[in-house]
Amino acid sequence: MRVAVVGAGVVGLSAAAALLERGAEVVCYERADEPMAERSVGSSRIFRYAHREPELVRLAADARAGFDRWAERSGRRMVVPSGCVISGADVPTWAAAMEAADAPFELQPDADRLRLPTRRPPAEALLDPSGGVVDVDAVREYLTGLTARALRREPVEAVDADGHVWSRSGPARFDVVLLAAGTGTSALAARVGVSVPGELEHHARFTFPVDPAVAWRSWIDLPATGLGTYQHASGPGRWAVGGHLDPAATAWPVGRDAATAAARDEVLAYAREHLAVEPRIVETVYCTPTPGLGDGFHVQHAGRVVAVHGENLFKFAPVLGTALAAACERD
Ligand SMILES: Cc1cc2nc3c(=O)[nH]c(=O)nc-3n(C[C@H](O)[C@H](O)[C@H](O)COP(=O)(O)OP(=O)(O)OC[C@H]3O[C@@H](n4cnc5c(N)ncnc54)[C@H](O)[C@@H]3O)c2cc1C
């Protein structure tokens, strides 16, 4: 089977690796100079079993087993097991999903168990002891090593439902074309009549210095009022914080610089008031998510084209790669 994978982000590379393992002939097209340079950029992501739906909790458990397999093969740990705390008014929904999926969790752990950098512990909290931090550098090194022979640094201009791919080296035909192109998927999928949301917004995550000896848990805080955030260790002595700003401040027409400046001001003010971090930004990670998607992913197909899109996909990478490879085989 000849498969074109469009996009060498974590999703495309995971699928390419799974396809190569199944004996497929794979060409993975990437328009950027380096793989994993757009939505998969940076060095860390939150891993968690905790989701609002039991199906996603189960998938996260499968993904964790996949990360462990990758770790065994590469000799490098992929998930740092710090645990993850979810806090805010929605905690009962997350708890119900964890319960339905038979996943371990603790409700209302005491402050010692919470292990968060905040001066004001949240009123409602759920501890997901299986959560932690994905080491993106380890994943990148593993996947790019496995897929190096398949990678072609060329933008794909168009695809059709018969399996044709147009790039600067001319048209090529494949048994299946997998669109895993992140921000590029919507335009390519539209060519074969598949509708994928194409709207984008600006998002920035900021890293603060902390005492390297601290071992805080990853944290998703969704308070009823005030700034919602996600936070996690991003290497020793580094604490990353992303804020869920008013959508008007991060909308596409606002522009990258103004939206990043607004996010920086808000996250910095939040860090000064609430967090036990040095309020000095040492790294900014910028990307362009699709607004309003939330957790989870969607796979659609038309003829020989399979298209995937979603948000917060990093934590699902191993399971998504295997599932997409199987979807390609089923055509
Ligand atoms: C700051 C930040 C924090 C995040 N936090 C988390 C988290 O805590 N947990 C979590 O699970 N997820 C998190 N995410 C989301 C997660 O990282 C993304 O969902 C995931 O990396 C998406 O991977 P992808 O392969 O779909 O997209 P991408 O990494 O964007 O890959 C798509 C690739 O396709 C290429 N491409 C596009 N168009 C074309 C074309 N026409 N031809 C050739 N190549 C093309 C692009 O250059 C790109 O490399 C976060 C993302 C960011 C940016």
From TrEMBL:
<dbReference type="Pfam" id="PF01266">
    <property type="entry name" value="DAO"/>
</dbReference>
<keyword id="KW-0274">FAD</keyword>
<dbReference type="InterPro" id="IPR045170">
    <property type="entry name" value="MTOX"/>
</dbReference>
<protein>
    <recommendedName>
        <fullName>FAD dependent oxidoreductase domain-containing protein</fullName>
    </recommendedName>
</protein>
<feature type="domain" description="FAD dependent oxidoreductase">
    <location>
        <begin position="2"/>
        <end position="326"/>
    </location>
</feature>
<keyword id="KW-0560">Oxidoreductase</keyword>
<keyword id="KW-0285">Flavoprotein</keyword>
<dbReference type="InterPro" id="IPR006076">
    <property type="entry name" value="FAD-dep_OxRdtase"/>
</dbReference>
<dbReference type="InterPro" id="IPR036188">
    <property type="entry name" value="FAD/NAD-bd_sf"/>
</dbReference>
